[in-house]
From TrEMBL:
It comes from the Bacteria. This is Putative tRNA (cytidine(34)-2'-O)-methyltransferase. InterPro entries: Alpha/beta_knot_MTases (IPR029028), SpoU_MeTrfase (IPR001537), TrmL (IPR016914), tRNA_m1G_MTases_N (IPR029026). It comes from Oenococcus oeni ATCC BAA-1163. GO terms for cellular component: cytoplasm. Its main location: cytoplasm. Could methylate the ribose at the nucleotide 34 wobble position in tRNA. The gene is cspR. It is found in: Cytoplasm.
Amino acid sequence: MNHIVLFEPSMPANTGNIARTATAINARLHLIKPLGFDLDDKKVIRAGLDYWSNVDLVIHENLPEFLKTIGNGKLFLVSKYAKISYDQADFSNTSVDQYFLFGNEAYGLPEVFMRKNPEKAIRIPQNDQHVRSLNLSNSVAIVLYEAMRQQNFHGLERIHEYDQDKLK
């Protein structure tokens, strides 16, 4: 299973959009406190539309508590400071839980934590001379859909076919 993990998210609309993505790809969404909003915030709910009842959500009190839960899973730290691009990482193993940890919108992941785990870090290439960072929900979609592509979109079979008569 793929797991989307947000470290201290602060923008409700991003979290709502990410919850929708998690639901669309059958991923579990983990939120690491403190959160910069309440989960019943109108912006979170609006961005997640009516998918909240289907979100596989786990909330953790802090980063150390979250880290205790991953067991034999594989952890990827998504940061613009990583040396390895996300498309060079191997996400193809569907028999191992894979955790994609994204930092806070304003300050990313803790620097001390990143320095201790550089081999787990991946990045999305960008021109950071003109852009400080990509939008968090866009970053999640980019990385997770690459993981799903490498996994042959496991679990995302086509649910319904278009009626060819309606396309005419």
